[in-house]
Amino acid sequence: MEARRVKKPLHVISFIVENKPGVLFRVAWLIRRRNFNIESISVGPTENANISRMTITLYGDEPTVEQVVKQLRKLVDVLKVSRLDPDNTVIREMALVKVHVPDPAARADLDYYVRAFRGRIVDLSPDAAIVEVTGTPQKIDAFIELMRSFGIKELARTGATALPRSPKE
Amino acid sequence: MRLSGAKALVKSLEDEGVEVIFGIPGGAILPVYDALHDSSIRHILVRHEQCAAHAADGYARASGRVGVCMATSGPGATNLVTGIATAYMDSSPIVAITGQVARHMIGRDAFQEADIIGITTPITKYSFQIQSAEEVPRVVKEAFYLATEGRPAPVLIDFPVDVQREEAEMDFDAKISPHLNKVVKEPHPLQVKRAAEILLNAERPVILAGGGVILSNASEELRALAELLMIPVTVTLMGKGAFPENHPLYIGRIGMHGSAAANKLIMEADVILAVGTRFSDRSTGRFDAFARDATLIHVDIDAAEIGKNIKPEIPIVADAKHALKAIYEAAKELARKRDSSTWLQKVKEVKESLEKTGQNSADELSPKNLIREIRRLLPTDGIVTTGVGRNQMWASLYLEVYHPRTFITSGGLGTMGFGLPAALGAKVAKPNSIVVDIDGDGSFLMTERELATSIAENIPIIAVILNDGWLGMVKYWQDLFYGRRYCATCLKRGIPDFVKLAEAYGANAARPQSLEEFSKAFKEAMSSDRTTVIDVWINPDEPVLPFAPPGRSLAEMIIDLREVRRGGS
Ligand SMILES: Cc1ncc(C[n+]2csc(CCOP(=O)(O)OP(=O)(O)O)c2C)c(N)n1
Ligand SMILES: [Mg+2]
C-alpha cells in the first residue's frame, strides 16, 4: 500500500450526480465491476439541493484513470465528470484519530504535533485523546504516521474532497 | 387525464409504438395485465421468463426497434436475468418491466420480493423503480430513450404493485430529463480528416465492422466507403451481416473461429479502420498481439470502448453511420486515388489459398453441407438465429449473410438456449421472413419448451438441430486440451427423441438421413405455417476450424487439426 503510493501520482476525479437514491450504489458498483482500485470516495450535497458532488482519489496509471472517467461519464445519474489537476486544486480530507496518551509527557508531545499540523484536540479522557486534523491526504498520512508512536486506538478518515482553484490572472 | 399507474404504463407503451410484449404474469404485475386486456398491444405468453427476454431481444435485433418483456416480481424478475444479460452484452435495446411488491413492503423480504434493481444494475444501462404513479409517462419515455440512444442496451422498469393501482393525474407530454442526452453522434472533423488521409495512404488497409455498424444502420455507408477506397472488409461475429458476404471485398470474419483468410489478413494490415466493435477477446485473440504494427482508427459511440482493450492511434467517438459518411466525404474531397491493386491481389491470393484448407468432412450430413443447403434454399431476407457451441460457429463460418439483421446470435454472453426464443422474437418482428434456428442439441434443450409458445401463438419457425449427442464445443476443448477426458459433456443418455418431442408440442418434425431428405424437409418446413423441428444427427467428432486457441494471437490459429499437439489453455 505504502509502496504504491510512492510510485504513481495521485489523481482526483470530481463529479456531480443527481441527488437521488441508488446513485452511490451505482458508483460503488462500477468501481468494483471494473476492478478499479480507488483510494477514497466522498459524497456530499452541493449548493444545489438536487445535486451532490462526489470525489474519488486514486493512484493509477493514465489509461486506468481515463477508463474510470469514461465509465463514470456513462452512468445515467452522473451529470459531469472532471479530472482535477492536483497542482490547481484544493484537496482536503479530515481525520479523527484517537490516540493513547496515558501521562502528561505524552500529552505534551501530542500537543506539540497537533499544533505543528494545525489540528485540534477535540476530546480528552484520562488516558486518550481524539485529534481532528484537516489537510491534503498526504498531510493526513504524515500525521497518522506520527500518531503511531502514541498507539492509535481508532481512526476515521473522511476521504478527500476537492474543488478546482479559480483561474488567476 | 386521471389514470391508474398500470393504465398509464400501457398507454405510454402504446404511445411508444409498442406492438408486442413477451411475458408471464403473476400477482405483483396483475394490474398491468388487466390494463393490457383492453389494449391493442399483443401479449405473447412465453413459457419461461428467460425466453421473454430472449424473444424481446430477437425482436429488437431483427427489427431495430425496442423489444419489450414483462414479468412478475421475485422469481419472474430473476428469471429474466440471463436474457437481460445476453441483450446487454450484445447492445440490444430491450425494456424489461417487472412487478414489485408494494412500496411499504420493500425491504421486508416480502413474499416474492427480489431486489431486481440491485441484481440487474450491472446488466442494464439504467433501471427505474417507479415511486409514484404520476412518474409513469416520464419513466417510460426515459426508458425507451435510454434503450436506443447512443449505444443500445436493456433498461429495466420495476413497478411496485400498489403504484400500479394508484391513480394520478397523468401528463403524457412530460419531457425526459435533459441530462439524459449525453451522446455525441457527429465525429470530430479533424479526426475524420486524419482518418481519411491515413486510409488513403495505407498500403494494406482493412476495415473491421462490428455489431455497431448494424445497430446504427450503417451498412450502406460502410459499403460506400469500402468501394470508394477499395478496402477489404472483415467483420466480427456481431458484425456478421453488416457487409454482404458475396461482395468481392469481403474477406470473412475474424476471431477465435474466424475464417483463415480474415485472421491472416487483419494481422498483416498496416491500417485498420475498426467501426462499432468493442474488441472482444473472442474477436482479437491476445490483445497485445492484435494489430500491433497497424495504425488503428477506432470509431465507437461509446467513448469508454475506445482504449478499453486496444489503444487506437485515431479515436473517433461518433455514431458509426455519421462517422463512415464523414470519412467517405473527406476521402472523396481529397480526391486522391489509392493504388490498391497490389494489396487486393494479395488478398485475393490469400483468400483462394485458404478457402480450401481445413478439414473437409466426408459425411453427407456434415454441418457445412447442411448449412450451405439452408443458405441455398433460404431467401436472402431469411433470418438465422443460433444456439451456442459448435453449431453457432459452423453457422457463422458457413452461412453467407447478405443483409444486416438477418444473422442473430448470442455473441458476448454466449447463452445456450438463445436460438429458439430469439427466433420467435425475430419472426414476430418480421412475419414475412422465414426464420431458422440453427441449434445444438444441448442448447435446444435449454429452452425447448418455447415450442409451446410457437404453436399456441402461431409463430412458425424452423429449428434445425445439429444433434451430436454432446455438449459438442466443450467436448471439443476436452479433445484438444484435456486429453479426451470427457467429464460431463455427453448428452446421449437421456437425450429425448426430438421428433417425438416436437410432435408432442404439436409441431412438425423430421429426421432426414440424407442431404436430399434434408432439403425436402426444409422446403416443406418453409412452406408450412407451423413450426418444424428438423433433427439431424451429425458426427460428434466434427471439428470447428480454424481455431485460434484462447490466450493466443490470431496468427497462431490452427487450420488443420493434424498440427495440434495436446496443449493447455
Ligand atoms: C447457458 C450456458 N451454459 C453453459 C455454456 C458453456 N457451453 C458452451 S458451448 C456448450 C455446449 C453446447 O452444446 P450444444 O448446444 O449441443 O452445441 P454443440 O457445441 O454440440 O454444437 C456449453 C455447455 C454456455 N455457453 N451457456
Ligand atoms: Mg451438441
Describe the structure.
The complex is a heterodimer of chains A (169) and B (569). Chain A has helices spanning 2-7, 23-33, 62-74, 104-116, 137-147, and strands spanning 10-18, 40-45, 51-59, 78-84, 89-100, 120-125, 128-135, 152-157, 161-164. Chain A is of the alpha+beta class and 169 residues long. Chain A folds into 2 domains: 10-84, ACT domain (Alpha-Beta Plaits, 2-Layer Sandwich); 90-164, ACT-like. Chain A, domain 2 (Alpha-Beta Plaits). Chain B has 569 residues and is α/β, with parallel strands linked by helices. Chain B folds into 3 domains: 2-180, Thiamin diphosphate (ThDP)-binding fold, Pyr/PP domains (Rossmann fold, 3-Layer(aba) Sandwich), CATH 3.40.50; 189-355, TPP-binding domain (Rossmann fold, 3-Layer(aba) Sandwich), CATH 3.40.50; 367-544, 3-Layer(aba) Sandwich (Rossmann fold), CATH 3.40.50.970. Helix content of chain B is 38%, strand content 16%. Chain B has a 6-stranded parallel sheet with strand order 3-2-4-5-7-6, with helices on both faces. In chain B, strands 11-10-9-12-13-14 form a 6-stranded parallel sheet, sandwiched between helices. A 6-stranded parallel sheet of chain B has the order 16-15-17-18-20-19, sandwiched between helices. In chain B, β12, α13 and β13 (295-300) form a beta-alpha-beta unit. Chain B is globular and about 70 Å long. At the A-B interface, α2 and α3 of A face loops of B. The structure holds thiamine diphosphate and magnesium ion. Magnesium ion binds at residues 440-442, 468, 470-472 of chain B.
